[in-house]
Write a structure and sequence with these properties.
- By secondary structure, this protein is mainly α.
- The chain has one domain.
- It has eleven helices and two strands.
- Keywords: Lipoprotein, Signal.
C-alpha cells in the first residue's frame, strides 16, 4: 500500500508537469526558471564533489584491486535488477521484464550472488531502467531543469522519478539488524554506487565540473541531452552528443 500510494502521487504530480512547466525560451535547450537557485545548489554539489566524493573515489580506485572493482560494479548493477524489472512491467515491456528476470536468476545462482556476470555471456546484458523513463512512457512532460542537493541535475519528471525509484527499490525497506542494518542498506543502495560511478567516469566529470567555462551550463546541457537520448532510444551514446562546452 505504501509503494502504491507513493507511485500514484509521483505519477499524478509528474503527469501535471506539462500544465505548470515554464515554456522553453527560444534558443535554449530546456526551460530553467529556477536558474538562480539551481546555481546555488550546483555550487554546493561541486563543493561536495571536490571535498568528499572526488577524494572518496580516488581512495576507492587506489585501495581496491581492479578485480574487486569489477566485481563490485557487477554487484551494484545486480541489486538494481528488481527495480528495473518493476519498471519493465510498468512500461508493459514483456521482453525486457523476462530478460531482466533471467539475468537476475542467472547471476544470483551461478554468478556468486551478482559479483560475477555470466548472464552477459548468455545473451542477457544489463539494461538500465527507472521510474523517470516509466513516467515518460506514460506521457509525463519533461518539465523544467532543476538541481537537487547532493543528487545533482534533473528534470522535473526525473526528480519525481527518483522518488519513485526509492519507493520501489526493495533495499529501501531493508530493516535487518535494526539501525545498523538500515545504515548498511543505505550505504549499499546510495553511497557505494555513487562512489563507483564517480570513479568510472572520473575524467569526464572532472572536465565538466572543473575545466569548462561554465560548469552549470555544461552540466545542464550534458544531462538533458543524455536523458533525452536514453528515453528516446534506450541507449546513451556519449560520443554522439554535442559538445557541451560549446553552449
Amino acid at each position: 500500500m505504501r509503494i502504491g500510494t507513493t507511485l500514484a502521487a509521483c505519477g499524478l504530480a509528474a503527469l501535471s508537469l506539462g500544465a505548470c512547466a515554464a515554456p522553453t525560451p527560444p534558443g535554449q535547450l530546456i526551460a530553467d526558471p529556477y536558474e538562480n537557485v539551481n546555481r546555488v545548489m550546483h555550487g554546493f554539489n561541486v563543493a561536495a564533489d571536490r571535498f568528499v566524493l572526488r577524494p572518496a573515489a580516488q581512495v576507492y580506485d587506489v585501495a581496491t584491486p581492479t578485480l574487486f572493482q569489477h566485481m563490485l560494479g557487477n554487484f551494484v548493477e545486480h541489486v538494481r535488477l528488481p527495480l528495473i524489472f518493476i519498471n519493465n512491467v510498468l512500461q508493459a515491456d514483456v521482453d525486457g521484464a523476462l530478460e531482466t528476470a533471467g539475468r537476475f536468476g542467472v547471476n544470483t545462482l551461478v554468478g556468486a550472488g551478482g559479483l560475477l556476470d555470466p548472464a552477459t555471456e548468455f545473451g542477457l546484458p544489463f539494461e538500465d531502467n527507472g521510474f523517470g523513463v516509466t513516467l515518460a512512457e506514460w506521457g509525463a512532460e519533461e518539465g523544467v531543469f532543476v538541481v537537487l542537493p547532493v543528487l545533482g541535475p534533473a528534470t522535473s519528471r526525473d526528480a519525481f522519478g527518483r522518488i519513485g525509484n526509492i519507493a520501489m527499490n526493495p533495499l529501501t525497506y531493508v530493516t535487518f539488524g535494526g539501525g545498523t542494518g538500515q545504515i548498511a542498506a543505505a550505504v549499499g543502495e546510495f553511497v557505494g554506487p555513487v562512489i563507483i560511478l564517480r570513479d568510472q567516469n572520473f575524467e569526464i566529470i572532472d572536465s565538466v565540473l572543473y575545466d569548462s567555462e561554465d560548469s552549470y551550463v555544461a552540466t545542464r546541457t550534458g544531462y538533458v541531452l543524455s536523458r533525452r537520448n536514453r528515453i528516446a532510444d534506450g541507449v546513451v551514446d556519449v560520443e554522439a552528443l554535442p559538445d557541451v562546452f560549446a553552449e
